[in-house]
Amino acid sequence: KQRWVEVGSLGARDTGEAAELRADELLGALLLARDRAQDDEGAGDRGDGPLDDLQLALRRGDLGAGAGAGLGGALSALVRALEGETDHAATWLGLVPDAALGSAGLVAHALIAMGRVEPKDAAHWLALLADPSVHDELWPFVVHAHNRYGLYWGDPVETDSALDRTWAEHGEQLVAGSTAQVLLTSDAADLALLLGQLSRAEAALDGVP
Hints:
65% of the residues lie in helices and 0% in strands. By secondary structure, the protein is mostly helical.
């Protein structure tokens, strides 16, 4: 089974290797660049420099055909949407043709709609996502989007049960401390709190490194 990982850097890869990178690896690189940007900002350096540089390279296709503007734009939008930057995420999605949205673009659209408190639009984008748990390398982020919708407007009991099944069937694919693992753990804690299960929420958060 595939393990969801976050790669350290794309800098050591040549164009041919980068063209073969999976979407999850590219997303991992963007998330790492985001973290570096936040570290630099905390140290007094310019804000999103590392992330902006990598996003620009993806947009121009500098990393090979497999990392062209469509995939790069969709992944960049997803990173921004995960941060709650709906306007910035929407700007990136504006660069992506509908046919190239993929899971990253659809999840980004759904998260943007949630951030704008537009449940009908969020449900529309989520409905376009097939069951990702078997064949989609970005499945944790698809599950996260469904979890957030369930928390805000859906059935929290059903959402919580679905998340439990996901943990049981695919939890071993998550790398401890990865963004994907932290997101799903936070979802589990939020659902437990909503259902009045304080001890379960605390137990979930204890599992975050």
